[in-house]
Write a structure and sequence with these properties.
With 171 residues, the chain is of the alpha+beta class. It contains four helices and six strands.
């Protein structure tokens, strides 16, 4: 009887092992990598062809230091266009990426020259900047749901020759 049970157990385990390949978790990193490349291209070209196929309708951009969600594809477009107005040679390069089930994290570098006016009314400095940062991008239903961006704004401003001053203390 024990031999019959061990034989049945072996057959059961063998049968389950044959079915296991169908239960594997699919690796979506290549699909995400393609979407990330297109997304980076929007940053670099300010050309938004096919953006609805890459970004979710309820996309959000969250930037340091407060990471307040700025919703919508239109907000994203305005942000990218503003960078290109102030920095016509704006270039974003991904240096490293890691992929999870529905997210991607990357280290990036931006190079640009401030030859155009900023949205805040600041005059062009003519200075070249090189900054690094990190982003986390979440996916939903095969599209980019949001991007969390963290960079060193102080380094950026210093390279432009800007000086930050503390507001006067209130008594």
């Amino acid at each position: 009887m024990k031999k019959q049970l061990s034989g049945i157990g072996f057959l059961l385990i063998f049968s389950i092992s044959l079915l296991m390949p169908g239960c594997e978790v699919k690796d979506h990193s290549e699909e995400m990598r393609i979407k990330i490349e297109k997304y980076v291209n929007y940053w670099n070209t300010a050309s938004f062809e096919g953006i609805e196929d890459i970004l979710c309708e309820d996309f959000e951009l969250l930037e340091s230091p407060k990471f307040t969600p700025q919703p919508g594809i239109e907000y994203f477009k305005k942000t990218v266009l503003a960078y290109h107005q102030a920095y016509p040679d704006f270039k974003l390069v991904l240096n490293d990426q890691i992929f999870g089930k529905d997210k991607c994290a990357g280290i990036w570098a931006i190079t640009a020259t401030n030859t155009g006016p900023s949205n805040s009314g600041g005059q062009p400095t003519g200075k070249h900047i090189e900054v690094i940062g990190i982003s986390v991008v979440h996916f939903k239903d095969g599209k980019i749901k949001d991007e969390w961006i963290s960079g060193n704004d102080l380094d950026w401003y210093q390279q432009l020759g800007l000086v930050l001053t503390r507001p006067p203390l209130q008594e």
